[in-house]
Input
Amino acid sequence: MSEDAASRRARPSPFALLVALSWPELRHHAWRTAAALVAVMLGVALAYSVHLVNASALDEFSAAVRAVGGEPDLTIGGPSAGFDEALYARVAADPRVTFASPVVEGDTYAFAGDGRRVPLRIVGIDALVAPALAPALALRPSRGDDRYAVLDPGAVFLNAEAARRLGSDAGSKVELQTAGGRELLRVAGSVATGGPALAAMDIAGAQVVLGRLGVVSRIDVRLATGADRSAFVRDLALPPGVRATAPGEAVQRVSNVSRAYRVNLTVLALVAMFTGAFLVYSIQSLSVARRQQQLALLGVLGLSARGRLALVVAESALLGVAGSVLGLALGAALAALALRQLGGDLGGGYFSGVSPALHVGGAGLLVHGALGVAAAVAGGFWPARTAAGLAPAQALKGLGSPPAGRATVVLGVVAIVAGVSLALLPPIAGLPLAAYASVALLLVGGIACVPGSVALLLAGWREPTQPLALLAVERARHERSAATVAVAGVVASLALAVALTVMVTSFRDAVVAWLDVVLPADLYARAAVGPGGGDVTALPPSLAVAAAALPGVRRVDAQRVVSLSFDASRPAVTLVAKPIRDPSRDLPITGDVVAASPGRIGVFVSEAVVDLYGAKVGESMTLPLPNGATAEVVVRGVWRDYARQFGAIAIDAADWRRISGDARVNDLAIWLAPQASTAVVQGSIRRLATDAGYDGSLVEFASPREIRAASLRIFDRSFAVTYWLQAVAIAIGLFGVAASFSAQVLARRKEFGLLAHLGFSRRQVLTVVAGEAVAWSAAGAALGVVLGLAVSVVLVDVVNPQSFHWTMALVVPWLRIAALAAAVVVAATLTASLAARRAVSRDAALAVKEDW
Output
């Protein structure tokens, strides 16, 4: 056997080294190991819980859409108001059609036993045909009803969610809000469809309830075997506004509605994991620094540089595996709690009414577990390179490793430049993926520039006159490379916390200013308290004129809200018809306003319409009207609309009535005379609605203050997860400060012993340590604030417009940011001081003997 072969056989395996060397190190410094473990665990738990909640809600919602839509070969659909049912006769008579199922559907409200309004989806079907295409919509009569109950226009069949929320069972009555007021229907059975509250019924009865006589919403078609779908659609010659779509498009549309929100939540959840990677970096760097002589001895005994690198990487991977396993378990528990408390809605409002069960998939487990391990390995890679680059002979003599050169600073500058460049790129597949990469590169570049930044910041400090303070500042300057290890987690977590704080503050202030413009009246009345039932629950058209003549009322403006479908693969655009006398006063206009040419109708589009549909000021666009016709209009200006992510169009109410013939009203804006009684005016308007044939008790009133408070509650709920993620990032960063400073102080026992021999008292040494902590943490906090402001610019000016098509002014809450930075500095100083109390002990003086 050759000498080399014998040497390879004698060399210990990586697993043996982990057991013999790494495990005692991790166990001996359990506090520090726990810090890294908790960081990885929290990062994985947050990311995985957000994934589970969103995936479970999306699966449940998509399943409900598939159940209602069934499995047709194609679906013929049209405007939100539906289309003439005469088309159904043509489709059903075609010999290539096996089944044709007409459906009429719409949103309204039902009244629970305690008077609560419950949003309810009404689906009218042909009970004899629909089950062949959508088995979940089969009307199942209760035991007390005969089979002909499915044809009763006064009977409804509730799904489980509707029955639960209404407290209704077979044989009871349910009261619905209709265009004329209220109507009592009999609960005759159930349907198997899941998802939000839904009531199915015979199509004739549904047309009456929804006020859509002679109209259907869609036709589900099953073609005969071998029939050419394209030829069939072409031969139908569908009327304007009506198109045939594949059944999968409905599910894809549901996914697209919440995609940007889900992706943003996921990226924000990865913030904690990102911060955890820097914490692993700090802890592993300190571990390598403490074990230089041990690692050098391994090198002398034959462990190659690659072997030392693999050893430290394996330690990091071990932390990642343990943290990921714990994080996945915690994430599943958090997701189950969120689904039970929030019903699958993390504040975005996209899955309201859905109560999904927890769906745990193998792919999600593997991906998020791998992300946790990858974050830990990435954090430990640079310390591993340091271990691999040790010169064994010098390290054994305690001479340490040479300071880092300019490569790290150059790498940081390159990362920052690349991050700025990526922030200028357009969205990819409708998502700000390049902007997310920009944020990551800015943070990595900033961390890489920590030594130079600390040197630059400390260079500007005046030389202290007090000896202990001078010693602390000079050591902080000289050992600035160690500052990267100590404050990397601080810089990352504080930067992300500052960025999220600026983003949320900017958005909230923008919403408040927007509400001031869109809520100019003293009182608002509407037929429904939410978006459901916008057509079903319209107010009488004559109510606005009659209300304007009431004593105490100065002015009344009527508003009509309609959904328009520009693209079947995208959510509908909301059209708001209201009096527009002065666009700059009546709308939150951005940019210039152009005049419409004589005879042309002008509209104002929201920023989302510009981004999604390419609308431009001064150019024409085609409006798809609810009746299936179209109208050519000119875009006069762009306005901000924070209520409708997928686009809104404002048009003068008179122009809308002229092109559509729709005189219905959804909302009233009421200006009161001085000293007028709000209660008296409300009572008078309810009586006027009753006189016009509408149930006046259904009219809801709200003051601007109430609407503003409700809007801000919704805003805060939408960003509740962001607040929690911000808090976790700060907590992980402070945890990293504690671990880093504690380890560094404990590693300096020989230095403290030498100072004790030179006559320094215990209190003086603690003062020096505290001064160093103040210098480093203050420099790190300053750098974190600067990086956070840079990242906030990307979030506010790039991520938000590309994700949600909203723009806003950058608002920096300086007092809150100063408080965050001060908290970090104070926490770091206290942590270092407490750790130094343990190191500066009687044993510290004896530690000097190790060099004798």
About this structure: Residues 683 and 696 are 9 Å apart (CA to CA). Residues 248-290 form the longest helix (43 residues). Residues 529-533 have pLDDT under 50 and may be disordered.
